Amino acid sequence: MAAKRRAGLGLLGYGNIGREVYAYYRDGRRNARVVRIARRRINRPAPQAVKKLLVRRAEQVIADPATEIVVELTGDAERGAQYMLDSIEAGKHVVTANKEALATHWREIMGAAGRRGVSVGFGATVGGGMPVVRAMQRHASTDEVESFAGILNGTCNFILTKMKEYIVTHMDDPQIQKRSLPLEDALAQAQRLGYAEPDPTNDINGFDTKYKVAILANLAFDTAIDPADIYCEGIWQESQRILASDFYFLHHPRYLDGKYALRLAGIAERRGGRPALRVHPALIDTGGALADLAGVTENYNGIVINGRRLGRQFIKGLGAGPKPTTISVASDIREIAAGMSKPTKGGSQAENSGPPVPGARRGPALADVRKVRTRGYIRSVSPDVKGIYAKKLEILARHKVNVQSVVNVKEFLYGRDRFMPDYIEIDPAPDGAVRDVLRAFRRLRGVRDPMYFRVLEL
Ligand SMILES: NC(=O)c1ccc[n+]([C@@H]2O[C@H](COP(=O)([O-])OP(=O)(O)OC[C@H]3O[C@@H](n4cnc5c(N)ncnc54)[C@H](OP(=O)(O)O)[C@@H]3O)[C@@H](O)[C@H]2O)c1
Question: Which of 74, 152, 203 to mutate to test the pocket of ligand 1 (most atoms within 8 A of CB)?
Answer without folding.
Answer: 74
